[in-house]
Amino acid sequence: MALVRFLQISDLHLGRPFAWLPADRREARRRDQQSALEQTIKHAVERNVHALLIPGDLFDTVPVDTASLAFAVRAFSVPGCPPVFITPGNHDPASSDNAAWNTRLQQARGMSWPAHVHVFDTPEWTCVPLATQAKVRIWGRAFLSSSGTMDRPLAPGSLEGSYTHELDTIDVAVFHGSREGRCPPSQKVTAPFSEAEVAASPFVYHAVGHYHARSDIEQTAASGGPVIGVRQAYAGSPVSLDYTETGDHGALEVAVRFGEGPCTITTEFLRLDRRRVLGAQADVTGCASAAEVDRRLEHAMAAAGVTADDFVKLSLVGRLATGVRWDAPSADVLARAFHARTDRAQVRPDHDLEVLRAGEGRSTEERFAHELLAAMDAATDPEERLAIRRALYYGLDAFRVGEVVPQWEEVSE
Predict the structure, then answer these.
(1) Is 369 in contact with 359 (CB distance < 8 Å)?
(2) d(Cα 238, Cα 135) in Å, to the nearest integer?
(3) In 121, 131, 183, 413, which residue has its Cα 20 to 30 A from 404's Cα atom?
(4) pLDDT reported for residue 117
(5) Burial of 161 (C-beta count, 10 Å sphere; 0-12/13-18/19+)
(6) How far apart, in whole angstroms, are the C-alpha atoms of residue 267 and residue 263?
(7) What's the CA gap between 251 and 234, in Å, rounded?
(8) Which pLDDT value is given to residue 351?
(9) What's the pLDDT score for residue 401?
């Protein structure tokens, strides 16, 4: 049997501003993105793969900034880089004003893609024979605008007039789209396709971009189809782009064995991102000072395995003692991670509301608490109820500590 091997990455989003990070961390994260692409090409050369497949969103937006474009052109120009097949996605569409794919605009910037880089720049399926392995064709289609599309790339109507069968040749699809039923909350459905359409497709393998988490569709021998193994896969984003993108991130090596009988397709994950997105939870109940809150955060981070390379979401829970003022982690805590984000929505002040509710209203504090607890119980709008709860906490702080310090704005239901 013959063997063809690919490296697959997508959704690198070169040029992303990372505005949610401090200024010094933004540039470091952009260097991480560049390193991921350089590592991918290095692996491709060392592993002698037949091609690189990039199904969309290599760049973050249109217009593509000159520095990001220049970096990508240089990266793909290294000696030994195999053929590269790129299908522009909804973030970096093949529009007339996109210098990443418009030859005239590239030339105006004094750049051009190396000859071994092929960009699919039409919304119709087109193919290119793979020069490094006989009897293999790479098919692709492009987005032309960032607004996306509800056209179904694998529907029979999308293939008619474009796809042609060639005897004893295997076809690989590279495109950007949404597997139905699996769209993450943070992303929109665009170019949808179903598992049934994958199973009926003339392509033996589908390299797909758009979703930033790794996933695949497998077929078993029992299905009786033309493929055994991985029929479609998202490699996911090579590096985490925000705090929702947990888990390892990197590239996929895809091995397709073909010739006699069904194709056999396997994938191997290659981690590229040295940083992880982790979570650490600390219970602040009983802490007598802000320093003790910080110590509990440090213990939680150690327990979660957080290193100085990682992103970490610090979740605080429990009851903060009356009079303890804690606004944010100390510099020592923050230094234990590349970046930390704090969530204190589940922290409550150490006021016993049930005792106040049961009181006879003899004190001004009890009467205040009764009024606000009754209003909170009567409120039907969640936002109104939450606003009353926060007002109750601040009022009780004023009674017991003699001052009001903003610290309950993050409290949630």
Answers:
(1) yes
(2) 30
(3) 413
(4) 98
(5) exposed
(6) 13
(7) 9
(8) 83
(9) 74
Rounded Cα distance between 123 and 142, Å, is: 5
Query: Tokens representing 118?
Result: 């092929």
Instruction: Identify residue 168 by its one-letter amino acid code.
Output: D
Angstrom distance (rounded) from CA 150 to CA 20: 31
> What confidence score (pLDDT) does residue 355 get?
86
pLDDT for the residue numbered 137: 98
Q: Using CA atoms, how far apart are residues 168 and 156, in angstroms rounded to an integer?
A: 22
Q: What is the dihedral of CA 132, 116, 57, 106, to 10 degrees?
A: -170
Collapsed DSSP state (helix, strand, coil) of residue 305: coil
Positive or negative: CA dihedral 91, 245, 184, 53: positive
For 91-126, letters b (16+ CB in 10 Å) and e give bbbbbeebbbbbeebbeeeebebeebbbbbbebebb
Distance between CA atoms of 361 and 370, rounded to whole angstroms?
Answer: 7
Q: Report residues of the chain scoring pLDDT below 70.
A: none
Q: Tell me the C-alpha to C-alpha distance, in Å, between residue 404 and each of 187, 343, 372.
A: 40, 21, 17
- Which residues, including other chains, have CB under 8 Å from residue 366's CB and lie 6 or more apart? 356, 359, 360
Q: Rounded distance, CA 325 to CA 293, Å?
A: 10
Asked if residue 238 has a cis previous peptide bond (ω within 30° of 0), the answer is no
Tell me the C-alpha distance between 54 and 11, whole Å. Answer: 8
**Rg of the chain, C-alpha, whole Å:** 27
Contact 251, 270 (CB under 8 A): yes
Report which DSSP code applies to 119.
E
Backbone angles phi, psi at 66, to 5 degrees: -60, -40
Closest Cα partner for 20 from 187, 242, 184?
242
Cα separation of the two ends of the chain: 60
DSSP H helical ranges for 160-227:
195-200
User: Long-range contact list for 185-189, CB < 8 A, 24+ apart?
Assistant: 186/242, 186/244, 187/211, 187/212, 188/148, 189/150
Q: How many residues does the chain have?
A: 413
